[in-house]
Amino acid sequence: MIYDVAVIGGGPAGLAAAIEAHKKGAKVILIEREARLGGILKQCIHDGFGLVRFGKKLSGPEYAEIFIDEFRKENIEALTLTFVTKIQKTDGGFDISVVNRSGAQTLRSKTLILATGCRERTAKQVSIHGTRPSGVFTAGTAQHFTNLLGELPVKKCVILGSGDIGLIMARRLTLEGAKVLGVYEAKPTPSGLTRNIHQCLHDYGIPLYLSHTVTDVISKNGRVAGVTVQKVDEKRRPIPGTEMHFDCDTLLLSVGLIPENELTRSAGIEIDPRTGGAIVYENMETSASGIFACGNVVHVHDLVDYVSMESERAGLAAAEYLKNGKSDCSSLTINNGTSITYTVPQKIKDLSKPVSVFFRVNRIFEKSAVRVSAGDETLISYPRSHMAPGEMEKITLTPAMLEKAKGHAITISCEEA
Question: 352 by DSSP, 3-state: which?
Fold first, then answer.
């Protein structure tokens, strides 16, 4: 069982990467821990997917089905209900230790693509005083119960955090007859997309409170019976005297996503502390030669369309690596400037092609400009009418800009116009 490319993860990122590598002539195997391909899209029954990639509104399952159908049409090999336990570098590539219904086995591949996605932060990663009764769980868990299992897990709830999954579930639960008392966000700005705030909260009369957090969970007979919410200051410290109590049976957490980078770290790949994912070049190659990463395991995306496009780039690069091997050319580094939280990619290897750079700002901007500079020279300034931390931004660097930047790091910053 020797392959050219092994893709770990069967969600939208893994499917797109596997298909692209296969089309370029590589012998591909995809490894997925769940029983079905599709990843998180299986439970995302709302629409809004595919607008960038296909120019039409699709639900999550519909979007995934396009790639699953193509994957099967190409007869690409897949192992489902299979867990990767270890990755070991060898002279010829990588040994991948897996466990599935057939037992433990080792696969060999010349290259790897990590597409393991991300997971939600849980109650253990949020500092909330009180007990740990049943009824405290993530918004994604509520989505799984409601959309896949057909069970309504709440009657009256409070949502902590304004991430997109939480916003979407506020609407979903309301449509199913549950009462959502409010969405509370500790930060002064929302975490989710503006369109979700309007379509999921405003359109249904669900209040959003910024600079508020849950400070206590009250239980009765082992179940959530209520929560205490307080306003917080600029350092997110609860302000005495602002307590509000709500009777409810559930606290949903939508407090952020974490790239699933256990395999990334075990492979010795350099991690960017800003994204929590691997540091990558524009072709999605990591610091470990022959290992590529794509999708939410690199950085958390807003739109699955961009996940697919990024992952196709990883699949193409893995196939090219098989032919050309490691490139020893020098690279440019992209640095965070004023008001920028992170950039992806963090490095650029090939200066002869345009490079798309994704980034997030750390506060809300109205009329502003994104400045790209190298040393003391401004390469270009992109005007923007609105930017927010919850919305990923994209700019393109041309070969002419990259050539001018030689010998310097590229810095991306945001300034008021």
Answer: coil
CA distances from 13 to 92, 170, 184 (A): 25, 27, 31
Neighbours of 15 (CB within 10 A): 32
Residue 265, classed as helix, strand or coil, is helix
- The CA-CA-CA angle for residues 204, 214, 359, to 5°, reads 70
| DSSP secondary structure letter of residue 36 | S
Nearest to 47 by CA among 247, 304, 371: 304
Query: Rounded to an integer, what distance in angstroms lies between the CA atom of residue 115 and that of residue 392?
Result: 19
Tokens encoding 221? 């007979």
- Among the residues of 137-259, which ranges form H helices? 139-143, 164-175, 194-196
Q: What is the pLDDT of residues 192-212, one digit of tens each?
A: 989 999 999 999 999 999 999
Tell me how far CA of residue 165 lies from CA of 193, 325, 345, in angstroms. 10, 40, 25
84 has which bridge partners?
98
Q: Residue 129: what pLDDT?
A: 65
Structure tokens at 382: 């992109």
CA pair distance 309, 318, nearest whole angstrom:
15
In sequence order, which ranges of 292-381 are alpha helices (DSSP H)?
Answer: 304-324
Sequence letter at residue 330: S
Q: Is omega for the bond preceding 12 within 30 degrees of 0, making it cis?
A: no
Give the model's pLDDT for residue 329: 61
Pull the structure tokens for residue 392. Answer: 């990923």
- Of the candidates 168, 234, 58, which has an alpha carbon nearest to the alpha carbon of residue 12? 58
- Per-residue pLDDT, 407: 87
Using the structure block, give the residue that is written with the tokens 């769940």.
34
**Do residues 228 and 244 make contact, with C-beta atoms less than 8 angstroms apart?**
yes
Give the model's pLDDT for residue 409.
94
Eight-state DSSP code of residue 267 = T
DSSP β-ladder status, 156-160 and 179-185: parallel
Rg (CA), the chain: 22
Positions of the chain with pLDDT lower than 50, given as ranges:
none
* Cβ-proximal residues to 409 (8 Å cutoff; 6+ apart), any chain: 332, 333, 334, 335, 374
Predicted pLDDT at 250: 96
Pairing of strands 103-114, 93-100: antiparallel
Contact 239, 222 (CB under 8 A): no
